[in-house]
Amino acid sequence: MTRKQRRATFIAASLGILGLAVGLMLFAMRDSIVFFYSPSDVVERGVEPGQRIRLGGLVEQGSLQDLGDATLRFNVTDFVETVTVTYRGMLPDLFREGQGVVTEGSFGEDGNFTATNVLAKHDEYYMPPEVADALKRSGQWQGEGAEASHAETYGQGSYP
Amino acid sequence: MIVELGHFALVLALAVSLVQTVVPAIGAHRRDVQLMHVAEPAAILQFLLVGAAFAALTYAFVVSDFSVKLVYDNSHSMKPMIFKVSGVWGNHEGSMVLWVLILAMFGAMVAFFGRNLPDTLRARVLAVQASIAVAFLLFVIFTSNPFARLDPAPFEGTGLNPLLQDRALAFHPPWLYAGYVGFSMTFSFAVAALLEGRVDASWARWVRPWTLAAWLSLTIGIAMGSWWAYYTLGWGGFWFWDPVENASLMPWLAGTALLHSAIVAEKRGALKSWTILLAILAFSLSLLGTFLVRSGVLTSVHAFAVDPARGSFILGILMFFVGGSLALYAWRAPMLRAGGIFAPISREGALLMNNMLLSAATASVFIGTLYPLFLDALTGEKITVGPPFFNYTFVPIFVPLLCLVPLGPLLGWKRADLMAAAERLLAAAGIAFVALIASFAFFYEGPWLAPFGMALAVWLVAGALSDVAWRIKLFSTPLAESLSRARRLPRAVWGSALAHGGVGICVAGIIGVTAWSDELITAVAPGESAEIGGYTLTLQGVALRDGPNFDAMVGVVGVARGGRDLGVMLPEKRRFPAERQEKTEPAIRTNGISDLYVVLGEQAGNGKWVLRAYRNTFAPLIWIGGTIMGIGGLISLLDRRLRVGAPTGARPRLAAQPAE
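^ Those are the sequences you sent over. The predicted structure of the assembly is below.
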């Protein structure tokens, strides 16, 4: 094998791997990205049934219902629009009515939103940035506690 | 008073590192031995000063001096002592002091052990190392002063986030930082080599142990973090592709590539320029990790800082060091002489393949982690790149890499015989095939891909064993001869076999948890039972318990299997009054092969309690494998040839050791 052939082999191998990596990423970008929606976004832009989204806002006061068998229902609101969320599982430690929440899941054919994941932050003053942003857009931003810096974390929703 | 002394020591350390940056660099340029020799005492002094500052801060935490704002924000007098100490780095400011301390420690180690390095190289390495210290000390002193006082001093602190009050997590940051900052050493060596304009085998011999030490610490740090996430977050998962996790994975991947390319640079004098580039990239990714975690661009458990001034400062540091070193690389790298020609099928070729695949894997993690940030910055669109993205990109790149791992060590240098190497792996391939059939038979209802993953895991372990077996001529010579060969085998060979085998065990754990785990969510009243994976869980009752700084609801869950009573599990829901937070504490019952994992949830209205349980097949193997990888790294590090400061070339006996 001459020097040239050797070099050609290495270049071909690295281009092959580069191509593979780029191809995989483009493919994955198309399918596995989850967009954030506020309740108003859901109404304005519409969401296809089955498409995974993150839905965030405030948990509406008095909307939390226990349907039995660890299944819960609550409303996520930005004070303009409201979406009802059904979730089976354990709520994060700091899930509270009237506080910010991000849920991940999809709309069914019947138009109901089922969450597989509920993320709340481990701090009672904390507002998820997406939710704060959504509230600002809907003109309902109160600004309370948002500037306070606190240690935060995901709640224990379940990642697959 | 002690706190003020600590602050003063930190400022002095800045002055010393400024001197250490400038004077030896001028000395190396002018070939002035006296100026160059300023570097070593400066490095040691810098370490002592930062050490004093760190000790002063620790003192403030230990005696609960709430007049220090940092202590007030992150501690509480009721907290157990271990968490008072770990609280020092359980926050932004303190963890940056720890960062600088480890940085200074590495510099001091070069000063101490590096007497046999060429004068100019050592002076330049220490100057570059000190320049990093200057940047981070400026950052700490001007944007994140840990010694700021409160007046009047509060009576009691606000406590540490309960999630961080944990034994594994207490020691996760020091290991992780030792890894991140360890790559600063290889970075300094790379930049110094570019300034010198030459890279020789002794340079690579020096870089390898530092890379290994950094890689080993990072491996342990990541494993600890993932273990913590597993047993404390209550999701039963071990890796979430969270940006903060990815921030530590990227330098690990680049560091793994560097570890392998440095072997080629040392043994064959090839891939020098690429090795330098990898050294720069590994540290750049460490800096990027620091930026992502410390700037608060990401919001998750690690993002303590929400202060934009800090973010832009670290971004400035990042751009200066990454941009500067890459520009230097572009300018000087063409001057490095390439050497060591090799055929595509050879040990070098295999290591190059390893490097290309690892780089591609790093790139996929990089894109997946940063794309949402760029998109948000450019368009305001908020997206999440979750596990599916990485499953489609990272996994397909990593699987071929893992398939090739057992082959590499069996190939000869320069030009190798693929058939001969493959022959030596026949037994391993046979065992992997048996594992494939066995997993299909045993888990016939599971996902069809999983048995192939299991075969891959077994292939890695068996491949590592065959490597050693072949080297000690097991079964082809008398056993006594094999044993004496095993004793003479270089530690680096044992280390690499252990590390590769550890990867296999880790893969088995990941496959098991991903494919063959059961999950149960249910609501039960006391006295009621639920079934999961052959176990019967009975909620016997819920009781109250007082902890040192929390009170807890304890679920008493009886476990039985096939009618046989296996005792009780006690998952808790803890309430921390000082921090006004709650934390769930899962109960885990393990037999070393699989885990039963129980979490107690909220009380539902009708007197029932939500119970969540997992049966995680092979879960412990993930961390057992990680530990074995770390041990492999450690054994490699103890190899005579790599021992930091071991005389090189002075004793010809060393050169006569058998090549791997």
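The longest strand of chain B covers residues 535-546. Chain B is about 60% helix and 10% strand.

Shout if you want it in another format.
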